[in-house]
Fold each of these.
Amino acid sequence: MAEAANGALLTVAGLEAWYGESHILHGVDFHVRPGEVVTLLGRNGAGKTTTLKSVMGMIGKRSGSIRFDGAETIRLTSDRIARAGIALCPEERGIFASLDVKENLTLPPVVRPGGLSLDQIFELFPNLKERLGSQGTKLSGGEQQMLAIGRILRTGARLLMLDEPTEGLAPVIIQQIGRTIARLKQSGFTILLVEQNFRWASKVADRFYVMEHGRVVDGFASADLEANKQKLQDYLGV
Amino acid sequence: MQALYGQLVVGLINGSFYALLSLGLAVIFGMLNIINFAHGAFYMMGAFAAYFLLNWAGLGYWWALLLAPLMVGAVGVLVERTMLQWLTGLDHLYGLLLTFGLALVIQGVFQNEFGSSGLPYAIPAELRGAQNLGFMFLPNYRAWVIVFSLVVCLATWFVIERTKLGAYLRAATERPELVRAFGIDVPRMITLTYGFGVALAALAGVLAAPINQVRPLMGADFIIVVFAVVVIGGMGSIMGSIVTGFALGLIEGLTKYFYPEASSTVVFVIMAIVLLVKPNGLFGRTA
């Protein structure tokens, strides 16, 4: 996995992470270049979500190296990592029940210029505009996912990390999120996805990494997906 | 009839203190998940700060209204930074025991220095006298306490429920780690919130000083009723604290008029009934 990472926006090397006494990540290596959509694949418990949380600084005990835009971030707290330009859309969406849709949408502060305006977000997700006054958790699952993605688009973050954005959603919503990711890529955003649905991910990602037991065990470009299909099915147990 | 109105005013005054104190407790519980048993001690420290400012620095009531909450709030910030922050993620019981112990230490130190009897604190000259309302005489200072407390309570509610800062606070109550991952310095916000809650207690202490005198145990006497108010309103509910604080003050006042024997227990009877019917309190959110 030690491919050349020159010019990468995010370079993760030898990343280890612990939840209390449990050692979850055992030396994760990968990189994401500017403008790429990269997907982390793997079975449940492989360490994909922990990897995203570690990059975001949300895991207390971690070691190794995480370089973002040339600067080491392994020792930074999550608020400083966010201000450096990384944003996370968590697996369980993280919509706040005590906030309405507009408050949820505008909660993350703008950390740098280049983010989308509210109108641009409504263009991507028209449903949100009609539900601005509703309580965040009263939205449907699909609308909550749109809200969770929409709110990090405002911030101007250069690296968007989306954890299982299609989980539990209807096919029509999954297609809409796929189109949104394609548009974001066109606009120059760099995206790191965690996804179980590799057929969907194959349509939006440039490259894949496969994780097993807290390590990256394989990686290939989207163009090589067909050639690696059997191997990937073995990895994922599908 | 004059006696009834008199008791209603006393009830509103007590309600003002209940509201201010339970509001601080609600803000602290909502944000830090800590049942702040030291709240009564901070209320007492607010009154003492006003006393010190007057007798040691020559600064009167109006300065005390500004400076005492800042001074005691700074003590709160120190307490949060040096002690409470280490309890994050632990059971409620740890915070409760720590703040309870802290209250005993603070009250003990003040009792040792100043004894148990009250120290006088005069009503400011601008607020002396009373208004004849036709059906009763309303002392100016008491009217001021009610109006000022109401304004402070509503301003706090507005900030928490209607502003961006309040949205950060509410969101951090639910998922502090996620709010921090959005770029907000949550630990600092928690510290300042605790300081603010403590400052509210100190403000109530300054307001109470001319009415109740300044005594080391003035908060200890009060805090148990205030906790009952918080439970009735709903733990962590801002509007619940305000409405319940004033309402229970009034109910206490009415009970003093109609059935004085029950006046000191009525709040606890109401608490028991509310817990039976609505365990999350009148304004509490269900989990």
Amino acid sequence: MKMEHDVLHDRVSAVEVKRWRDDFPALREKVHGRRLVYLDNGATTQKPQAVIDAETEYYSHYNANVHRAVHALSERATEAYEAARRKVQRFLNAAESEEIVFVRGTTEAINLVAQSHARPRLEPGDEIVISAMEHHSNIVPWQMVCAQTAAVLKVVPINDAGELELEAYERLVGPRTRLVAITHVSNALGSIVPVAHIIKVAHEREVPVLLDGAQAVSHLPVDVRALDCDFYAFSGHKIFGPTGIGVLYGKRRLLEAMPPYQGGGDMIRSVTFEETQYNEIPYKFEAGTPNIAGVVGLGAALDYVQGIGLDAIAAHEGDLLNHATQEVTAVPGLRIIGTAKEKASILSFTLEGVHPHDIGTILDHQGVAIRAGHHCAMPVMQRYGISGTARASFALYNTRGNVDALVAGLHKVRELFPR
Amino acid sequence: MSDLREIYQEVIFDHYRAPRNCRALAGASHKAEGYNPLCGDKVVVYLQIDDGVIRDASFEGVGCAISTAAASLMTEALKGKRVGDVQILFESFHDMVTGAPGVPQALGKLEVLAGVREFPSRVKCATLAWHTVLAALKDQREPVSTE
């Protein structure tokens, strides 16, 4: 029997994609009198009904604080909260659920590692290695910790296609390198970074690696044990989950060696005015009442994604990206920014003589939502000598028809802004 | 498309493609930098003020059609204006592009930007150069931001 989607050969059937679309109520919205074509998934994804229902269910039926009370609702809330942690563990194939720390998002996860892992270890002249295609959230926390410790930030260059220059990377990881922090998928260019190789090189020199998975997790299967990465960070809202919830994965021995990030309730074992004993991991890093509804919603989002399967998602999005890449070349003056051999789901481009914001406004008027600007990656824009790009980013619920709407919109832009 | 045509009309394209007074002003008495962190666009505005009257105005920079045309049209409108009248002119312009209730003031050529009121996310593009002029008049040294 033929499977409905064969990841190696076929496109996912249109019927199946239609079924996925129907799970997302926001996709039925109309903007400017037209059915929404949502191509800003790199910024945030829409939410399936299952995620919305999971949050509503929590607030309607078992809203209570976790890890505190002995009453029934609190027990149910705690159970759901910890069940979601195990879902994240399975999703990333982490060895233990204690290695999963809930945070607000990728940004907070990176700041946590910068302040609790890197800062106590860094000596003046030590080095942190990042790349030239990082999001600001994987640049600024390192600049801050470098300013605090007199450590130095080293930046791996990229080539014109938007691929990491691996030889330069191998030269940059040296005896003073204390951490490599690199994106898994570039948010501005769509490049997939060869992270297995990055980690192998770093580990040969006994340097731990943090991967910024914000743009990766909804497009590629991630296995932190196969990768042997030391820290992995991602945000719930970019994988169909709620905003304000994210994950830091860290290897047990690293997390255990780190001091807490914030002090407060839940992160302690005992407190007197003389001495406070900290809780075990992961609670040591989860001070205060957490975003319980967000965690429950994230668990539902991961169930949803795993129900479809990341291989099927990757195959479908690969087809969309190829189709889009081909079709946009017909728009006069269009230049794709980011042409790496390995790409995921992001099409960044400029249009000669038209500012990205004007592209964004005109497409919006045709119901097509894209992102325009520097994508919180200003150094990438500087690398290409541009102020910004227009970016279409795809998710599992996008269709070839959505891509065609984008291309028709771009022809309209060209019509309004003749060359 | 009618709203789009209203905002992206001929006069705006003309000022986008061939902006007026787009140059540094040698011997400017006032100068300020403006920045729109949303899109990274930057503008420098120069004024030559004499006896409380703006004798010359120019700008450099900016990016999108709306911010460029707005800066170009603004420099034209400012020439010959009394410094004391700039704030009120800005306020009338701001009311127009944000669609504020009340009787609209006659703004002459600046009225081609009235269509911006249908595009709230673009109001900052239309007002960046204006905020920068106000900063220049206050002799503000730090770049002014639209945020």
Amino acid sequence: MKFMGYRRANGQIGIRNYVLVLATSVCSNQVAREIAEKVQGCTYINNTFGCCQIGSDARLTTKTVINTALNGNIGAVVVVGLGCEGTEPTYVYDEILKTGKPVKMVTIQGDGGTLGALAKGAEFAREFAQQLSLQVREECDISELILGMECGGSDTTSGLASNPTVGEASDAIVNNGGTSMLSETTEFIGAEHVVARRAITPEASDAILKLVRDCEARAMALGEDIRGGQPTPGNIEGGLTTIEEKSLGCIHKSGHAPITGVLNYADIPVNKGLYIMDSPGQDVESMTGMAAGGAHIMVFTTGRGSPTGNAIAPVIKITGNKQTYNKMPGNIDLDVSAIIDGDKSIPDMGQALLDEILLVASGKQTKAETLGHKEFCIYKTAPTF
Amino acid sequence: MKKNAVVITDKDSIAVATMDLKQGELALMFINNESHEVRLKNDVAFGHKLAIRSISAGEHVIKYGESIGLATQAIQAGEWVHVHNVESERGRGDQHA
């Protein structure tokens, strides 16, 4: 299975060809966004952190910022820093430069304040955008593609129809040598034994069980019932009773392929195959982690309806709830409710989704892209100090 | 007759309604390709669950062939199954604080 993507000098492929205007902290977030909005062909991330963080939490933000820039959908990067933040602009710049990706840097303190940094950053972005516009799409194989799988605003149709549909598409990608990522550790609680059975090594199986144990312990430490947070009030209204039920539906997104390994949040997989990424169940933080992990494209199932996109990777929305599709046709790309009605099989809809993945990988805009949805939020593991 | 509920595995003690169903109606489903029917004791909305056999208080409620929680009271076949009669066993910091 082939699609038309962009080949990078460092051997990566991409399905989009963005200049990323990369804020290293909350203090440079607005300037970075204004540059990206000024220059055609840019994208930006909403980075509301990057300073006054400590230890593993600080390292997680810095890693996420850098790895986002390394995603194959990014053709060039303009780092925009304040100049004195914890996620140091010079460090971010150097780490990107090492990979051979074209990168420039401006700082607000070093380049004449807001207006100076805007002008210099916009000129860098403009030059990169013009260079990238010369690049043509070339044939790529599905084995080079990295899929991220997400579910949000779930109801019982998610577990019955849309998640198994994603599982079919994920299996097709993995069985053809590609890579797929399942995240949202919270949504393995009660289903971890089912997922762990599919790990290819005892180490990977233990790692899956440990991720879930640690996640549940963090929730328990708050001394509250996880219900209300998970499942959400909307999940419950949609018929989901417990986190166990939600999880058992969620894991259908990963199909039946063996699980190669476990990734920490925002880590880039070293091999191909199906991976589990440790992330919260919150959709935007979860997809941010997978985009930083290199996912070129996301498939997002929703029962209740969700508008969420991503700043780096196109997001294909699918629902198994006919009413939701009819209420939000401008947000949802694929309606698989025919499975619930018994008119189509899960493999039929899996093939339809795979066809859509290849079209979007070749340049078709998703509904979230056409509406400019660029959600992005970095997972925090400690308070800001 | 067209089915209006889904049972995922033959171990399951519940079905999921695939349309809004009313008390007194028959829920119609397949279990292992065999037709099965349950008379509803409550209204069950689209996407919500109904018991397809009696479930004792404290028994695991089974969907996808796995436990989705414990019944907090005895549940009869045809009853609506949700947060009022099932509770989670996981992430219960409220019980361990």
